[in-house]
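Quick one, tokens below. Sequence please?
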């Protein structure tokens, strides 16, 4: 089955014009850095994530080749490399059907990070609530003049100052 390049480009360019957003959300960049992926392999993985629905994605190698502007043979090499590095699993569906690419390893990593972030956010919120409650209940005592004050007889002091009367 042969698809014209112009038809695919028209289809994908129209779809991209509708949305002015990032192509893929929650892409595990740390895993790509750990696996030491080349830029082309990372791009291929990004495209696979873009076609991902739930756990399995099914783009043809021709579609990936058009989106990356590479040959199908290069795409095949990138996919084999991703498979060897354990980032994807490939299930062949026959000669005339697209392969299924299983991205469950990476999606599980993403879910773990999301859950950890939720837990960290809850802990941070609890700490903030506790700090706010302490701050609202805390009454700051002034350390200046916190001792017992002397009592003065101001009339006596005034007489001494104004009239120069000395007290005996």
């Amino acid at each position: 089955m042969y698809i014209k390049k112009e038809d695919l480009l028209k289809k994908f360019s129209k779809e991209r014009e509708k949305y002015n957003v990032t192509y893929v959300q929650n892409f595990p960049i740390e895993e790509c850095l750990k696996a030491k992926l080349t830029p082309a392999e990372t791009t291929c993985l990004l495209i696979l994530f873009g076609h991902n629905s739930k756990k399995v994605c099914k783009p043809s190698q021709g579609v990936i080749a058009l989106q990356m502007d590479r040959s199908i043979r290069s795409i095949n090499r990138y996919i084999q490399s991703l498979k060897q590095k354990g980032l994807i699993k490939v299930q062949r569906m026959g000669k005339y059907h697209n392969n299924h690419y299983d991205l469950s390893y990476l999606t599980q990593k993403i879910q773990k990070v999301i859950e950890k972030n939720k837990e960290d956010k809850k802990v941070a919120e609890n700490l903030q609530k506790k700090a706010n409650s302490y701050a609202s209940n805390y009454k700051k005592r002034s350390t200046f003049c916190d001792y017992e004050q002397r009592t003065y007889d101001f009339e006596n002091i005034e007489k001494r100052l104004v009239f120069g009367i000395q007290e005996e």
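The helical segments are 5-18, 29-34, 39-50, 61-68, 72-84, 104-137, 154-163. The longest helix spans residues 104-137.
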